[in-house]
Amino acid sequence: MKNEKKETKRQQNVMNRRTFIKYTGMASATVVATGFFPNIGIGEVSEVKIGQIYPYSGPLSTVAKFMDIGTMLAVEEINAKGGIKSLGGAKLTIVSGDSQAKPEVGMAEAERLIEAGCVVLTGCFQSSVTLAATEVAERLKTPFVCTIAIADEITRRGYKNVFRLEQDTSGIGKDCDDFIAWLEKTTGESIRTAVVIHENTLYGMSMADSLKRNLGKQSNLKVLKDISYPHTTKDLSTEVIQIKALKPDIIICTSYEQDAILMTRSLYDQRVDLKGIIGCSSTGHQGPIPIQALGMIQEYVMDITTTINRFHPRFNSILKNYEKRTGTSITDMFFFYSYDAIQVIADALEKTGSTDKGKIRDAISKTEGVPALTSSVPSTIKFDQTGQNVHAKFLTVQCLGQKDTIVWPDKFKEKSVVFPMPKWKDRKI
To answer: Which residues of 8-28 are buried (b: 16+ CB within 10 A; e: fewer)?
Structure first.
């Protein structure tokens, strides 16, 4: 009898192990096949993994640092307030991937993060990397909230899981033409000719195409030449010589930080006098890095870009938390987008009360009323059927007194624009 009881207990243990393996195995298969993480019950989800992809190593690593700050400020804010309440207070956890500024690496990192259990992805800064990474997200049915990446194609492939906070190149090109028309009218200064100069990846090439399509529709501008160069270049003297020979009223630039700094310095070294140096969504023609690198050479340089929404309902607390984390005041636009991306994702999670990626995707597509830390009109985030944020708006900043200052449109203006910029010989540099 004693032996029979032992055997019965052994068989029950075997059945318990088999039952456990059977159902946990089924759950694992569900995760791999669909990306669905089953909720056994509200309150039993301890964390929600969000993947972010940025160029943490390579020539754009400084940018990644700022993007990371925005992400972590948003996550800390949400977790400190109790996490995702509809998921029982689940905390947001960030899993980072390094694209190394390479599309193929960004694609591989997207796959890795999804396999690691991330139910939403965000990133990637470069258009070429974003284009590749979002292809993976669409194939694996994982929502992807793009932060900075302007190429039109990103939201024009008919994808259902891709959303973008930043304006696309077509919208930015139109904003640029509107600004130049306003600038000519406001200052009374003739602006008739321009050289478009840009780096030669998808970022610069798509922006140049948009400028050529849009310039001259509202303004009187004619593009004399389109000059492209490798974004890793160490010498732009040949390109600057071409600009000097063409004698345009202005140049319109789309560049990363190091090549933009090189370009502005070369214009100064060769004493190329222009009425204006205008970046167009040019990460290297605004922000603290070119000001620190160039000092007064950067003075009067403009960029059509996005900037912080000082009317954001949590602006003061965000500013305080930024200063606490970095030890400096806000001087860079990049972190705005990563902050907003996390807010959009958290809003979707709260509304769905689920980690089902399809439900999260549907909730993101219906985003309404989430305040935008980036400049928007109106100041909230809303996506159209392609996944594009229809409220995104670019402004023009000008380096005045060694600080980027909003000069257009009038609704947001902090100071009056200085145009034309003084000749090099008339400036104290």
So the answer is: eeeeeeeeeeeeeeeeeeeee
